[in-house]
Amino acid sequence: MLLVLCVAFDAPASVTESQIAASIEGMKRYLYAVQNKTGDWESKSIAASHSGGQTALVVLSLLLAGESHQNPRLSRAINRLKDFMKEESRNPETMSTYAVSVRTHVWSALPDEFHPWLLRDAKWLMDTAKQHQFGTFDYQRHKSSRIDNSVTQYGTLGLWEAAKRGVAVPDTIWQALQAHFIGGQQANGGWDYNHTADPTGSMTAAGLTALIICRQQRYGRAKAIPEPLVSAIDRGHVWLNRNFDGPRNPPFGSWNYYYLVSIERVALAGGMGEIGGEDWYRVGARYILDQQVTDDGRSDQGSVGRQPWQTAFALMFLSRGNYPVWVGKVAVPGLRWNIRPDDVHSMTSYLSDVAERELNWKVVSVDTAPELWVNAPVLYLTSSDAVELNADQQRRLQRYLDLGGILLANPVGGSTQFSASIRRLALRLFPRFRMRPLDDAHPIFTSLHRLDVDRTGPIHGVSNGVRELIILVEGDWSASLQSGVRRGGFGPWPLATNLFVYVTDRGRIPGRLASSFEHRIRRPTTGHALLGRLRYDGEWLPEAAAWEQTANRLFNRTGLNVRTADIELESLATNRDGPALAHLAGIDSVHLAELELAAIERYARGGGTVLVETVGGRGDFATKVERQFADRLGTAAVPLSKQSPIISGEGLEGADRIGRVSYRRRATAVLSVRSRPRLAAFHFDGRPAIIISREDLTLGMLGTRHWDVLGYDVDSARRLAVNLMLWCHAQRVNLEREMAQASGG
Description:
Layout: H1 17-33, H2 53-64, H3 72-90, H4 97-108, H5 115-131, H6 149-164, H7 171-183, H8 201-218, H9 227-243, H10 256-270, H11 280-291, H12 308-321, E1 325-331, H13 343-355, E2 360-365, E3 378-383, H14 391-402, E4 406-411, H15 416-429, E5 436-437, H16 443-446, H17 453-456, E6 459-463, E7 468-473, H18 477-483, H19 492-503, E8 527-535, H20 546-558, E9 560-568, E10 581-586, H21 594-605, E11 609-614, H22 621-633, E12 638-639, H23 645-648, H24 665-671, E13 680-684, E14 687-693, H25 698-702, H26 714-742
């Protein structure tokens, strides 16, 4: 099984999405700046035997970085690749495995009209492998017994891309590649360049990637994977974890950009979130950013290294490695959690095609910090065995779910003991919420594809009233996923699509580095504020962790330390150390008692502020409370004006000027909202004291992107919450100052 190192949690290294985006743009500018007048990127320093290879590499890197093939400059380069192929038809000896393999990636990334070019290059690769004594690859197509794991890696990658686009690659080729890399693996688990020297990082990554590809291509429908292949992959992982040296290619630290792309390939193929206890993408990205020449007026405008191919490798790494991670496969020590090792990879590949956007996945150890998991909105747990987590593992899983994640559980072979253990686990984690069958109106059956619940098999879920926390699919999803056979209309494929749409607001998912969890930094504390979460007879706290994110952002910006306290609603007005802001949250319609209404009014008239919110935005909670106060006060709540400090941020250090907000896609469709906040308030002495939000703020603050939430998107919800808390704190400070002055203090 895949080995996962357990590491202590710490705040991630300082590499941000904006830095990555700026770096990518600089590299693209540089590559276009050095494009030849002929439209290619060929160089005299590149061997003639690899003619067209550097151009193919640069074109691929630009496509991966989001450039359109219709961009005139890129379109011209693609046409140059066709010119190289025409020249090759006249002089076949000029064809290079490196160049042809990279070209297959280019054709695979382009529309179907380029498919004939893919077929032509794929055929050349297959014929070349057949010419080699060991069924592998040399620089060109000729009878050869030369061993070269680097060029063989690229030949394998080229055939893999072709196979993913429907090209039939004979099993005899995969069989030969599998035998070659198993036979060439050294006793310590690593691979070298030609089976004559000590292992290197780049060649070990190459060997691992090739074997993972062979496993996917050969054993998708097999009941078992041969033990020699399983063992070789496990030992390769052990070598990489033990010898990982950040961005430097062990043992010599040479060819580092080539090495980083090799690491990226094996990590993405095998779902490796960390290598050697480090986030390989953050480490590599930091190295590239440090090496990159900045755009300060020099002609190279953001290059790395001295050749375009080096910048192309770096651009490929930054772009492809930062594709969004949508799911984490849960690794549990002692549990057979990886019986079907390519199920999640297959599902992710399928969703990438459906979304027309590349997605990533990763393995998540249940013994690591859940704050490291949250950039994946779904965790996938599967086995045929019963799942027994210790207390710490249960705590970590619950923390992930509280932070907005969802657990998708699936029994291998329909195992009843696995399903029973998930039900027990759900009861321990959420004793207040029962597991129930999901009906045909649930988003997993409706969010994109309209599915027949009777054909999917039993699907159960645990919800807190606004979102699913755990989904248990009783049918054997992983068998279909492992096979890679995509049968539309039923089975896991459309269900997986609906799940993806449900948890990402129809595909709104940020890059790998963009975690929904904001870590608290080290800085001086400038003040303290209390947030009261009001408790009443009802579902008063569906999302306990929501304010944690706002509190961290407030502290990071201003040093204001916000702590939370749960306060009985009836005792709000008599609380000696009343909160700066009291949050009254709920879902469905509720009727507050007279004592509760009176407590809120006394607290608000005394200078306090109450936020009344319908969590999830689908129920009538805030609307009902608003009506009760309108009847009690004889006046209606009025919309907050854009001049209100809560909206404008005026006079509040660390606040945002919120001219416009963004809503979730479903909210814009159902509510016909535009770009203004829809907060309303009952005013006392000209001050908004009871603030009403019929739309969701909580799930936005939490960082979830669920499709069926009617409310603000993540960034807008957090900006509104920060402004509101800063304003309430300022009001409390002013009130305490006035009281002190009045008492002669």
